[in-house]
User: What shape does this take?
Amino acid sequence: MEKKLAIQESINIRGRKYSQKSADRRSGYLFISPFFILFGVFGVFPLLFTAYLSFHKWDILGSKEFVGFRNYQLLFTNDPLFWKAVGNTFSIWALSTIPQLMAALVIAFLLNQAFLKGKAFFRLGIFMPNVTSIVAVAIVFSAMFGTKYGVINYLLSFIGIDPIHWAGSYIGTHVVISAMVMWRWVGYNAIIYLAGLQGISKDLYEAAIIDGANKMQQLLYITVPLLKPIIIFTVLQSTIGGMQIFTEPLLFGVGGSNQGLTVTLYLYQEAFTRFSFGYAAAIAWLLFIIIIIFSLINVLLTKRIKSV
Assistant: This one.
């Protein structure tokens, strides 16, 4: 009898433990469910619906007409404006991202030096453009690069250069938009690099100083190699952002020859100006594929660095 009671008590204890584990598991899923619900509604569903929409012709008011791969076929074979937007996007990315990341690395290196006083003030100042309203930035830069009364043309006149019609030329428009992007994001990337620099042992720099290395040699042979994973991360982030640049060209203007037209701005025009939502969805997916390619390149580079 006592043996039966002991067995029954053991079964009850196991049942209570299993019930408690099951309740804990359900509670865990309940706590994390809001994220997955919001991600499904605002992340997964729009992605799948856009893919579905890219195979249709739809002006949002009428019924959807299935056209298969026609939208993609038109993009690749019969839309020179799209390829011009792609070329503009890559040009602006190159003019903004490469100088931006180089300047951010130099700024972070200087902010990490022991001789610099008031580091907190400079760190706050360098990050301020990132939280400034992009509309205000566009207004200021449009005034600075004005043809007749712009500050930049006024300064160029001192060295004998005639006024440049920035908004009317291909290179000029790209330079202005790239300058806005660079001014806004250089501080953000500098803070990321600074966080990485603070994880590098100071003993390495002290040993380099003893060996007679100057600041430039320390930057090239200590800082840059040890920051490679972070540099790859910022390159990826800047590339993704550069492929989706929208606000700057929208506010500054695309120009008479569409020299400021980017892929996302072209997508916006197709969807909300011409109401070709199926065609815009195809543009969005093509842009998504480009971003995936860059992400895969980043993963391969990261693995290669880790294996060295």
